[in-house]
Amino acid sequence: MAKKNLGEMSFLDHLEELRWLLIRSTIAILACSVVAFFFSDFVFDQILFGPKNPDFFTYQFFCDLAQKFGLDKSLCVTEINLPIQNREMGGQFSIHMWTSITVGFIISFPFVLWQIWKFISPALYENEKKYAAAFIIISSLLFFIGVLFGYYLIAPLSVQFFASYIVSPEINNSIDITSYISLMKTSTVASGLLFELPIIIYFLTKIGLVTPQFLRKYRKYTLVIVLILSAIITPPDVLSQIIVSIPIMLLYEISIFISAAVVKKQSTTTDLTT
């Protein structure tokens, strides 16, 4: 059946398009998940359990910085005592399945974006539809950068902090596999989605829900929140907090610039039509 224009599509037609978007996206995610399932040794031992290793890149990076700038030697991680256990009969199989699906989602993210673009493109102007490739490339790049940011900064700093945090010597840390994997998935996927902020702000500004004035007004509150979160997940030194905070605030400033550009373009278009 030929695809209808936006003005010709009924509510049921929109639902049908949405249904096929979900079906195609689900198939892509499951296909990538199957691949991840059969590479479980690499996914778990090399990637997910990487931050448990004192030789992990992030720990070496902070140790080199500490030695270079004469900072506290506690930044050099020499041991991470973090035994992981499974306490449920089907726990390992369940975590294997859901982790594979998460990896499948990350790998297939560009395809999912393409499906989303195809769904929303009928509502765009003709001159906007030509930016499909740019939208998918930029959005995917931001997402993967965010995933790497979460994996190489948020996740290892969180693992190191919680592994060394002791409220009482009477309590031994023996972390459940579900808890550990949950921290890793949250750190990476959430960071990836967070890095989509400029794209989200672009569309929110397009529909009038966000303005650059609003973003500038709440900039200082955003900075405080980011610094607090950075202080919680990083070692107790200013340098590591700044390293985590800078990319997030840079994204926020880029979002303000994008919002202002959209408002300016809309204003120019309105002036030309009047």
From TrEMBL:
It is found in: Cell membrane; Membrane. Keywords: Cell membrane, Membrane, Protein transport, Translocation, Transmembrane, Transmembrane helix, Transport. One of its GO terms (molecular function) is proton motive force dependent protein transmembrane transporter activity. The chain crosses the membrane at residues 21-44, 95-120, 132-154, 189-209, 221-236, 242-263. InterPro entries: TatC. GO terms for cellular component: TAT protein transport complex. Forms a complex with TatA. Part of the twin-arginine translocation (Tat) system that transports large folded proteins containing a characteristic twin-arginine motif in their signal peptide across membranes. This is Sec-independent protein translocase protein TatC.
